[in-house]
Protein backbone atom coordinates (compact mmCIF):
# COMPACT_ATOMS: atom_id res chain seq x y z
CA UNK A 1 0.00 0.00 0.00
CA UNK A 2 1.43 3.35 -0.98
CA UNK A 3 1.39 5.96 1.76
CA UNK A 4 1.97 9.64 1.08
CA UNK A 5 4.57 10.63 -1.49
CA UNK A 6 8.24 11.50 -1.69
CA UNK A 7 10.72 12.07 -4.51
CA UNK A 8 12.19 8.80 -5.77
CA UNK A 9 15.72 10.10 -5.25
CA UNK A 10 15.13 11.43 -1.74
CA UNK A 11 18.00 10.50 0.57
CA UNK A 12 17.98 10.31 4.39
CA UNK A 13 19.89 13.58 4.52
CA UNK A 14 17.54 15.42 2.19
CA UNK A 15 14.52 14.12 4.10
CA UNK A 16 16.02 15.30 7.38
CA UNK A 17 16.85 18.69 5.94
CA UNK A 18 13.37 18.96 4.51
CA UNK A 19 11.70 18.20 7.82
CA UNK A 20 13.96 20.65 9.62
CA UNK A 21 12.99 23.39 7.21
CA UNK A 22 9.26 22.73 7.40
CA UNK A 23 8.60 21.88 11.03
CA UNK A 24 8.74 18.79 13.27
CA UNK A 25 8.70 15.27 11.90
CA UNK A 26 8.20 14.26 8.31
CA UNK A 27 5.86 15.18 5.47
CA UNK A 28 4.56 11.62 5.09
CA UNK A 29 5.06 8.13 6.49
CA UNK A 30 7.15 7.16 3.47
CA UNK A 31 9.36 10.22 4.00
CA UNK A 32 9.80 9.07 7.61
CA UNK A 33 11.01 5.66 6.37
CA UNK A 34 13.88 7.48 4.65
CA UNK A 35 14.77 9.30 7.88
CA UNK A 36 18.03 8.85 9.80
CA UNK A 37 18.84 5.66 11.66
CA UNK A 38 18.16 5.75 15.39
CA UNK A 39 21.26 6.38 17.52
CA UNK A 40 19.73 6.84 20.97
CA UNK A 41 16.49 5.72 22.60
CA UNK A 42 14.50 7.05 25.56
CA UNK A 43 13.04 4.45 27.93
CA UNK A 44 11.11 5.02 31.20
CA UNK A 45 12.49 2.77 33.94
CA UNK A 46 10.33 1.90 36.93
CA UNK A 47 11.24 1.10 40.54
CA UNK A 48 7.71 0.98 41.94
CA UNK A 49 6.88 -2.46 43.39
CA UNK A 50 10.53 -3.56 43.30
CA UNK A 51 11.07 -2.84 47.01
CA UNK A 52 14.07 -0.62 46.28
CA UNK A 53 12.51 2.71 47.29
CA UNK A 54 14.01 4.62 44.38
CA UNK A 55 12.36 7.10 42.01
CA UNK A 56 11.63 6.07 38.44
CA UNK A 57 13.95 7.49 35.79
CA UNK A 58 14.22 8.16 32.08
CA UNK A 59 17.08 6.19 30.55
CA UNK A 60 18.94 7.29 27.43
CA UNK A 61 20.30 4.22 25.64
CA UNK A 62 23.02 4.25 22.98
CA UNK A 63 21.97 2.06 20.03
CA UNK A 64 24.57 3.21 17.50
CA UNK A 65 26.60 0.09 16.51
CA UNK A 66 29.61 2.32 15.78
CA UNK A 67 29.60 3.82 19.27
CA UNK A 68 31.93 2.59 22.03
CA UNK A 69 28.91 2.72 24.37
CA UNK A 70 26.64 0.61 22.17
CA UNK A 71 23.89 -1.13 24.19
CA UNK A 72 24.64 0.96 27.28
CA UNK A 73 22.56 3.39 29.32
CA UNK A 74 24.45 6.65 28.84
CA UNK A 75 22.25 8.92 30.98
CA UNK A 76 19.64 8.61 33.72
CA UNK A 77 17.17 11.37 34.59
CA UNK A 78 15.63 10.51 37.97
CA UNK A 79 12.20 11.88 38.78
CA UNK A 80 11.85 13.97 41.96
CA UNK A 81 9.27 11.61 43.51
CA UNK A 82 9.00 7.94 44.44
CA UNK A 83 6.19 5.65 43.26
CA UNK A 84 5.11 7.43 40.07
CA UNK A 85 4.99 4.40 37.74
CA UNK A 86 6.23 6.05 34.57
CA UNK A 87 4.70 4.14 31.69
CA UNK A 88 4.20 5.66 28.22
CA UNK A 89 5.53 8.89 26.72
CA UNK A 90 4.74 11.30 23.91
CA UNK A 91 5.91 14.52 22.29
CA UNK A 92 5.11 18.20 22.59
CA UNK A 93 4.83 18.24 18.79
CA UNK A 94 5.20 15.72 15.97
CA UNK A 95 4.46 15.15 12.29
CA UNK A 96 0.89 16.37 12.82
CA UNK A 97 2.51 19.86 12.94
CA UNK A 98 4.90 19.27 10.04
CA UNK A 99 3.97 22.44 8.18
CA UNK A 100 4.45 24.73 11.20
CA UNK A 101 7.99 26.14 11.25
CA UNK A 102 7.41 27.63 14.72
CA UNK A 103 7.16 24.15 16.27
CA UNK A 104 10.10 22.09 17.46
CA UNK A 105 10.11 18.56 18.89
CA UNK A 106 12.10 19.23 22.05
CA UNK A 107 9.93 18.12 25.00
CA UNK A 108 9.03 14.58 26.01
CA UNK A 109 5.78 14.17 27.96
CA UNK A 110 5.89 11.53 30.71
CA UNK A 111 2.53 10.82 32.40
CA UNK A 112 2.73 8.81 35.63
CA UNK A 113 0.17 6.02 35.58
CA UNK A 114 -0.23 5.72 39.37
CA UNK A 115 0.70 9.10 40.92
CA UNK A 116 -1.06 11.01 38.09
CA UNK A 117 1.81 13.50 37.88
CA UNK A 118 2.89 14.56 34.41
CA UNK A 119 6.55 15.30 33.78
CA UNK A 120 7.78 17.45 30.90
CA UNK A 121 11.37 16.64 29.94
CA UNK A 122 13.71 18.86 27.93
CA UNK A 123 15.35 16.67 25.30
CA UNK A 124 16.22 19.56 22.99
CA UNK A 125 19.04 21.25 24.89
CA UNK A 126 21.09 18.04 25.03
CA UNK A 127 19.35 15.00 23.50
CA UNK A 128 21.88 12.66 25.10
CA UNK A 129 21.32 14.10 28.60
CA UNK A 130 17.64 15.05 29.08
CA UNK A 131 16.72 17.38 31.94
CA UNK A 132 13.49 17.99 33.81
CA UNK A 133 11.61 21.03 32.49
CA UNK A 134 8.28 21.05 34.34
CA UNK A 135 6.18 19.01 36.77
CA UNK A 136 2.39 19.04 36.53
CA UNK A 137 1.18 18.00 39.95
CA UNK A 138 -1.50 15.38 40.40
CA UNK A 139 -3.84 17.76 42.24
CA UNK A 140 -3.96 19.93 39.12
CA UNK A 141 -5.00 16.91 37.09
CA UNK A 142 -7.61 15.97 39.72
CA UNK A 143 -9.09 19.43 40.30
CA UNK A 144 -8.99 20.81 36.76
CA UNK A 145 -10.09 17.67 34.95
CA UNK A 146 -11.63 15.31 37.53
CA UNK A 147 -9.45 12.64 35.95
CA UNK A 148 -6.55 10.43 37.03
CA UNK A 149 -4.26 7.60 35.94
CA UNK A 150 -2.96 9.26 32.74
CA UNK A 151 -1.70 6.97 30.00
CA UNK A 152 -1.21 7.87 26.32
CA UNK A 153 0.11 11.26 25.22
CA UNK A 154 -0.33 12.49 21.63
CA UNK A 155 0.53 15.87 20.10
CA UNK A 156 -2.24 17.49 18.07
CA UNK A 157 -2.09 19.49 14.86
CA UNK A 158 -3.32 22.49 16.88
CA UNK A 159 -0.07 22.43 18.85
CA UNK A 160 -1.82 21.17 21.97
CA UNK A 161 -1.04 17.93 23.83
CA UNK A 162 -3.71 15.39 24.69
CA UNK A 163 -3.41 12.66 27.32
CA UNK A 164 -5.89 9.82 27.83
CA UNK A 165 -6.80 8.57 31.30
CA UNK A 166 -8.00 5.33 32.84
CA UNK A 167 -10.23 6.79 35.53
CA UNK A 168 -11.25 9.48 37.95
CA UNK A 169 -9.17 10.61 40.97
CA UNK A 170 -10.81 7.96 43.19
CA UNK A 171 -9.77 5.09 40.94
CA UNK A 172 -13.14 4.48 39.32
CA UNK A 173 -13.20 3.92 35.59
CA UNK A 174 -13.63 7.00 33.37
CA UNK A 175 -12.39 7.47 29.82
CA UNK A 176 -11.44 11.13 29.52
CA UNK A 177 -8.67 13.29 28.08
CA UNK A 178 -6.40 15.94 29.60
CA UNK A 179 -5.55 18.84 27.30
CA UNK A 180 -2.24 20.69 27.78
CA UNK A 181 -1.10 23.96 26.25
CA UNK A 182 1.78 23.10 23.91
CA UNK A 183 3.86 26.14 24.90
CA UNK A 184 3.30 26.58 28.64
CA UNK A 185 2.32 22.96 29.42
CA UNK A 186 -0.45 24.27 31.65
CA UNK A 187 -3.62 22.20 31.91
CA UNK A 188 -6.33 23.75 29.75
CA UNK A 189 -9.03 21.36 30.93
CA UNK A 190 -10.53 18.29 29.32
CA UNK A 191 -10.78 17.68 25.58
CA UNK A 192 -14.15 15.92 25.68
CA UNK A 193 -17.44 17.81 25.67
CA UNK A 194 -20.93 16.81 26.73
CA UNK A 195 -22.15 14.60 29.56
CA UNK A 196 -21.54 11.24 27.88
CA UNK A 197 -18.16 9.60 28.54
CA UNK A 198 -16.98 5.97 28.33
CA UNK A 199 -16.85 3.94 31.56
CA UNK A 200 -13.12 3.24 31.07
CA UNK A 201 -10.12 4.52 29.13
CA UNK A 202 -6.61 3.59 28.02
CA UNK A 203 -5.12 4.32 24.57
CA UNK A 204 -6.33 6.42 21.62
CA UNK A 205 -5.58 7.42 18.03
CA UNK A 206 -7.15 10.17 15.96
CA UNK A 207 -7.57 10.91 12.26
CA UNK A 208 -9.00 14.36 11.37
CA UNK A 209 -9.51 13.43 7.71
CA UNK A 210 -12.23 11.08 8.88
CA UNK A 211 -13.39 13.30 11.75
CA UNK A 212 -12.71 10.57 14.27
CA UNK A 213 -10.90 9.63 17.45
CA UNK A 214 -11.13 6.08 18.78
CA UNK A 215 -10.18 5.20 22.36
CA UNK A 216 -9.81 1.86 24.15
CA UNK A 217 -10.37 0.40 27.63
CA UNK A 218 -8.09 -1.54 29.97
CA UNK A 219 -10.07 -1.70 33.18
CA UNK A 220 -11.03 0.01 36.43
CA UNK A 221 -7.83 1.41 38.03
CA UNK A 222 -8.64 0.46 41.62
CA UNK A 223 -9.25 -3.14 40.50
CA UNK A 224 -6.28 -3.73 38.21
CA UNK A 225 -3.86 -1.45 40.07
CA UNK A 226 -2.69 -4.05 42.60
CA UNK A 227 -2.56 -7.01 40.23
CA UNK A 228 -4.72 -9.29 38.13
CA UNK A 229 -7.52 -10.95 40.09
CA UNK A 230 -9.48 -13.59 38.09
CA UNK A 231 -12.46 -12.83 40.34
CA UNK A 232 -12.74 -9.45 38.59
CA UNK A 233 -13.64 -11.18 35.33
CA UNK A 234 -17.28 -11.24 34.20
CA UNK A 235 -18.08 -8.34 36.55
CA UNK A 236 -17.62 -5.43 34.16
CA UNK A 237 -14.25 -4.46 35.63
CA UNK A 238 -12.24 -4.96 32.43
CA UNK A 239 -12.85 -3.17 29.16
CA UNK A 240 -14.77 -4.48 26.18
CA UNK A 241 -15.36 -1.41 23.98
CA UNK A 242 -13.80 0.70 21.29
CA UNK A 243 -15.14 4.18 21.91
CA UNK A 244 -15.69 6.41 18.89
CA UNK A 245 -15.58 10.20 19.17
CA UNK A 246 -16.49 12.99 16.79
CA UNK A 247 -13.19 14.81 16.27
CA UNK A 248 -14.79 18.18 15.53
CA UNK A 249 -17.34 18.33 18.34
CA UNK A 250 -15.28 16.30 20.88
CA UNK A 251 -18.36 14.20 21.67
CA UNK A 252 -18.68 10.46 22.32
CA UNK A 253 -20.84 9.06 19.51
CA UNK A 254 -20.48 5.28 19.17
CA UNK A 255 -19.50 2.09 20.97
CA UNK A 256 -18.03 -1.00 19.31
CA UNK A 257 -18.19 -4.14 21.46
CA UNK A 258 -15.18 -6.47 21.06
CA UNK A 259 -16.21 -8.96 23.75
CA UNK A 260 -16.59 -9.26 27.51
CA UNK A 261 -13.28 -8.80 29.38
CA UNK A 262 -11.42 -8.47 26.07
CA UNK A 263 -9.39 -5.54 27.47
CA UNK A 264 -8.62 -3.73 24.17
CA UNK A 265 -5.34 -1.90 24.75
CA UNK A 266 -3.13 -0.44 22.01
CA UNK A 267 -4.91 0.99 18.97
CA UNK A 268 -3.24 1.93 15.68
CA UNK A 269 -4.74 3.45 12.57
CA UNK A 270 -2.90 2.77 9.34
CA UNK A 271 -0.35 5.57 8.88
CA UNK A 272 -1.78 6.67 5.54
CA UNK A 273 -4.00 9.57 6.67
CA UNK A 274 -6.52 8.72 3.94
CA UNK A 275 -7.00 5.21 5.34
CA UNK A 276 -10.12 4.78 7.46
CA UNK A 277 -9.02 1.58 9.19
CA UNK A 278 -6.59 0.08 11.65
CA UNK A 279 -6.10 -2.55 14.35
CA UNK A 280 -6.50 -2.95 18.09
CA UNK A 281 -4.91 -5.59 20.31
CA UNK A 282 -7.13 -7.18 22.97
CA UNK A 283 -5.06 -8.44 25.88
CA UNK A 284 -7.15 -10.85 27.92
CA UNK A 285 -9.01 -12.27 24.91
CA UNK A 286 -5.72 -12.36 22.94
CA UNK A 287 -7.31 -11.24 19.69
CA UNK A 288 -6.56 -8.62 17.05
CA UNK A 289 -9.57 -6.74 15.71
CA UNK A 290 -9.55 -4.81 12.45
CA UNK A 291 -11.67 -1.66 12.71
CA UNK A 292 -12.89 0.30 9.71
CA UNK A 293 -15.33 2.94 8.52
CA UNK A 294 -18.45 1.52 6.95
CA UNK A 295 -20.33 2.70 3.87
CA UNK A 296 -22.92 4.17 6.25
CA UNK A 297 -20.26 6.41 7.76
CA UNK A 298 -20.13 4.75 11.18
CA UNK A 299 -17.41 2.38 12.42
CA UNK A 300 -17.23 -1.38 12.84
CA UNK A 301 -14.72 -4.05 13.89
CA UNK A 302 -14.02 -7.65 12.92
CA UNK A 303 -11.77 -10.17 14.63
CA UNK A 304 -8.98 -11.08 12.20
CA UNK A 305 -6.45 -12.86 14.46
CA UNK A 306 -7.06 -15.14 17.44
CA UNK A 307 -4.14 -16.43 19.49
CA UNK A 308 -5.39 -19.72 21.00
CA UNK A 309 -5.10 -20.16 24.75
CA UNK A 310 -3.01 -23.07 26.01
CA UNK A 311 -4.27 -25.69 28.46
CA UNK A 312 -1.77 -25.59 31.31
CA UNK A 313 -0.97 -26.83 34.81
CA UNK A 314 0.98 -24.92 37.44
CA UNK A 315 -0.39 -21.49 36.57
CA UNK A 316 -3.03 -19.03 37.79
CA UNK A 317 -5.74 -20.44 35.50
CA UNK A 318 -6.24 -23.65 33.53
CA UNK A 319 -6.20 -21.71 30.25
CA UNK A 320 -3.28 -19.36 29.56
CA UNK A 321 -3.99 -16.59 27.04
CA UNK A 322 -1.25 -15.19 24.84
CA UNK A 323 -1.82 -11.77 26.42
CA UNK A 324 -1.31 -9.39 23.49
CA UNK A 325 0.09 -6.27 25.15
CA UNK A 326 1.55 -4.12 22.38
CA UNK A 327 0.98 -3.78 18.65
CA UNK A 328 2.38 -1.54 15.93
CA UNK A 329 2.20 -1.06 12.18
CA UNK A 330 5.19 -0.39 9.93
CA UNK A 331 5.26 3.06 8.35
CA UNK A 332 4.49 1.66 4.89
CA UNK A 333 1.37 -0.05 6.32
CA UNK A 334 2.65 -3.43 5.15
CA UNK A 335 3.34 -5.27 8.40
CA UNK A 336 1.59 -5.59 11.76
CA UNK A 337 3.63 -6.66 14.80
CA UNK A 338 2.49 -7.72 18.26
CA UNK A 339 3.81 -9.29 21.45
CA UNK A 340 2.33 -12.18 23.45
CA UNK A 341 3.60 -11.33 26.93
CA UNK A 342 2.63 -14.65 28.54
CA UNK A 343 3.25 -17.09 25.68
CA UNK A 344 6.56 -15.35 25.00
CA UNK A 345 6.50 -14.74 21.26
CA UNK A 346 6.54 -11.75 18.93
CA UNK A 347 4.66 -12.04 15.64
CA UNK A 348 4.83 -10.32 12.28
CA UNK A 349 1.85 -10.31 9.92
CA UNK A 350 1.59 -9.18 6.32
CA UNK A 351 -1.44 -6.86 6.15
CA UNK A 352 -1.46 -6.17 2.42
CA UNK A 353 -5.02 -7.49 2.68
CA UNK A 354 -6.12 -5.67 5.83
CA UNK A 355 -9.07 -8.04 6.34
CA UNK A 356 -6.86 -11.15 6.22
CA UNK A 357 -3.50 -10.72 7.99
CA UNK A 358 -0.96 -13.43 7.12
CA UNK A 359 1.59 -14.67 9.66
CA UNK A 360 5.08 -14.29 8.16
CA UNK A 361 7.38 -14.04 11.19
CA UNK A 362 7.52 -15.36 14.75
CA UNK A 363 10.19 -15.66 17.43
CA UNK A 364 10.11 -16.71 21.12
CA UNK A 365 12.08 -14.58 23.58
CA UNK A 366 10.95 -15.78 27.00
CA UNK A 367 7.46 -16.14 28.42
CA UNK A 368 5.67 -18.39 30.88
CA UNK A 369 5.67 -21.69 29.00
CA UNK A 370 9.39 -22.36 28.57
CA UNK A 371 10.81 -25.82 29.28
CA UNK A 372 11.92 -26.48 32.83
CA UNK A 373 9.66 -23.84 34.35
CA UNK A 374 6.72 -24.22 36.74
CA UNK A 375 4.13 -24.36 33.93
CA UNK A 376 3.33 -27.53 32.03
CA UNK A 377 1.44 -27.18 28.74
CA UNK A 378 -1.14 -29.95 28.41
CA UNK A 379 -2.84 -28.93 25.15
CA UNK A 380 -1.45 -26.57 22.52
CA UNK A 381 -3.06 -25.83 19.15
CA UNK A 382 0.09 -24.18 17.81
CA UNK A 383 3.29 -25.72 19.22
CA UNK A 384 4.52 -29.31 19.24
CA UNK A 385 6.62 -28.71 22.36
CA UNK A 386 7.31 -26.00 24.91
CA UNK A 387 9.94 -23.49 23.77
CA UNK A 388 13.42 -23.44 25.27
CA UNK A 389 14.28 -20.75 27.83
CA UNK A 390 15.60 -17.65 26.09
CA UNK A 391 19.28 -16.97 26.77
CA UNK A 392 21.29 -14.14 25.22
CA UNK A 393 24.89 -13.23 26.02
CA UNK A 394 24.79 -15.77 28.84
CA UNK A 395 21.72 -14.22 30.50
CA UNK A 396 18.49 -16.15 30.87
CA UNK A 397 15.87 -13.51 30.18
CA UNK A 398 13.04 -13.30 32.73
CA UNK A 399 9.57 -12.16 31.69
CA UNK A 400 8.13 -12.04 28.21
CA UNK A 401 8.18 -9.64 25.23
CA UNK A 402 6.07 -6.57 25.92
CA UNK A 403 6.65 -3.08 24.49
CA UNK A 404 7.91 -2.99 20.91
CA UNK A 405 9.26 -0.21 18.69
CA UNK A 406 10.19 -0.42 15.02
CA UNK A 407 13.00 1.48 13.33
CA UNK A 408 11.85 4.03 10.77
CA UNK A 409 13.09 1.86 7.89
CA UNK A 410 11.30 -1.14 9.37
CA UNK A 411 14.43 -3.30 9.65
CA UNK A 412 14.93 -3.39 13.44
CA UNK A 413 12.36 -4.16 16.11
CA UNK A 414 13.26 -3.21 19.71
CA UNK A 415 11.63 -5.10 22.58
CA UNK A 416 11.35 -4.56 26.34
CA UNK A 417 9.90 -7.04 28.84
CA UNK A 418 8.00 -5.14 31.58
CA UNK A 419 4.22 -4.64 31.39
CA UNK A 420 3.26 -2.86 34.63
CA UNK A 421 5.06 -3.29 37.93
CA UNK A 422 2.18 -4.88 39.89
CA UNK A 423 1.51 -7.38 37.12
CA UNK A 424 5.24 -7.99 36.58
CA UNK A 425 5.53 -8.86 40.26
CA UNK A 426 2.58 -11.25 40.03
CA UNK A 427 3.32 -13.05 36.77
CA UNK A 428 7.13 -12.81 36.60
CA UNK A 429 8.69 -12.44 40.09
CA UNK A 430 12.16 -13.01 38.61
CA UNK A 431 11.64 -10.03 36.33
CA UNK A 432 11.27 -7.75 39.36
CA UNK A 433 14.22 -9.40 41.10
CA UNK A 434 16.60 -9.48 38.12
CA UNK A 435 15.37 -6.49 36.09
CA UNK A 436 14.06 -6.29 32.56
CA UNK A 437 15.99 -6.20 29.29
CA UNK A 438 15.88 -4.58 25.88
CA UNK A 439 16.36 -6.79 22.83
CA UNK A 440 16.65 -6.11 19.11
CA UNK A 441 15.14 -8.26 16.38
CA UNK A 442 16.24 -8.15 12.76
CA UNK A 443 13.29 -7.90 10.38
CA UNK A 444 13.05 -9.32 6.87
CA UNK A 445 11.09 -6.55 5.13
CA UNK A 446 10.90 -8.43 1.83
CA UNK A 447 9.45 -11.85 2.60
CA UNK A 448 8.78 -11.38 6.30
CA UNK A 449 10.64 -13.01 9.17
CA UNK A 450 12.11 -12.19 12.58
CA UNK A 451 15.46 -13.18 14.08
CA UNK A 452 17.10 -12.14 17.35
CA UNK A 453 20.23 -10.00 17.04
CA UNK A 454 22.61 -12.02 19.28
CA UNK A 455 24.96 -9.07 19.84
CA UNK A 456 22.30 -6.70 21.22
CA UNK A 457 21.32 -6.70 24.90
CA UNK A 458 20.57 -3.87 27.29
CA UNK A 459 20.42 -5.40 30.77
CA UNK A 460 18.46 -3.20 33.19
CA UNK A 461 19.32 -5.66 35.94
CA UNK A 462 22.73 -3.98 36.18
CA UNK A 463 21.53 -0.46 37.00
CA UNK A 464 23.47 1.42 39.74
CA UNK A 465 20.40 1.65 42.01
CA UNK A 466 19.45 -1.96 41.41
CA UNK A 467 17.41 -3.87 38.84
CA UNK A 468 14.52 -1.91 37.32
CA UNK A 469 11.64 -2.38 34.89
CA UNK A 470 12.06 -0.74 31.46
CA UNK A 471 8.93 0.04 29.48
CA UNK A 472 8.07 2.05 26.33
CA UNK A 473 10.69 3.06 23.72
CA UNK A 474 10.95 6.43 21.95
CA UNK A 475 13.31 7.84 19.31
CA UNK A 476 14.26 11.55 19.51
CA UNK A 477 12.90 12.21 16.01
CA UNK A 478 9.61 10.36 16.39
CA UNK A 479 8.50 6.85 15.49
CA UNK A 480 5.60 4.80 14.21
CA UNK A 481 3.66 4.87 17.50
CA UNK A 482 4.18 8.56 18.35
CA UNK A 483 3.56 10.38 15.07
CA UNK A 484 0.20 10.88 13.36
CA UNK A 485 -0.11 12.32 9.87
CA UNK A 486 -3.12 14.54 9.26
If you had to describe this structure to a student in words, what would you say it looks like?
The chain is mainly β. The two termini are 18 Å apart. A hairpin with a 4-residue loop joins β17 (277-282) and β18 (287-293). Strands 29, 30, 31, 32 and 33 form a 5-stranded antiparallel β-sheet that branches. Strands 3-2-1-34 form a 4-stranded antiparallel β-sheet, with no helix packed on it. It is globular. 8% of the residues lie in helices and 35% in strands. It has helices at residues 12-22, 29-33, 138-145, 221-224, 421-427, 429-434; strands at residues 40-46, 57-62, 72-78, 90-91, 107-111, 118-122, 131-136, 148-155, 161-167, 177-180, 187-190, 204-207, 212-215, 241-246, 251-257, 264-269, 277-282, 287-293, 299-306, 310-313, 319-320, 324-329, 335-340, 345-350, 358-364, 376-379, 391-392, 395-396, 404-406, 412-416, 437-443, 450-452, 458-459, 469-470. The chain contains 6 helices and 34 strands.
Amino acid sequence: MQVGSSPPDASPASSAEKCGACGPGFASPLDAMKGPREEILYVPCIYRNTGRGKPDFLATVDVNPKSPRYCQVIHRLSMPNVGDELHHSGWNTCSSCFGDTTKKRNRLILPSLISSRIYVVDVGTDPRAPRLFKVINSEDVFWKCNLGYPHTSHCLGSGEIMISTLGDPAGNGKGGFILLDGDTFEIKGTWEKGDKVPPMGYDFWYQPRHNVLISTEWGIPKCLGYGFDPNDLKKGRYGRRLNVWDWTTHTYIQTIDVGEDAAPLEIRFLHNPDAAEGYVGCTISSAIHHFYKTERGDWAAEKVIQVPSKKVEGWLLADMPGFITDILISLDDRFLYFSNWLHGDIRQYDISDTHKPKLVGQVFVGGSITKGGPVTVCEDEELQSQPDPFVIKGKRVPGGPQMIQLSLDGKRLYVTTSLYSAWDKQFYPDLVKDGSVMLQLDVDTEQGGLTVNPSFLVDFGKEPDGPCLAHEIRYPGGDCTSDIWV
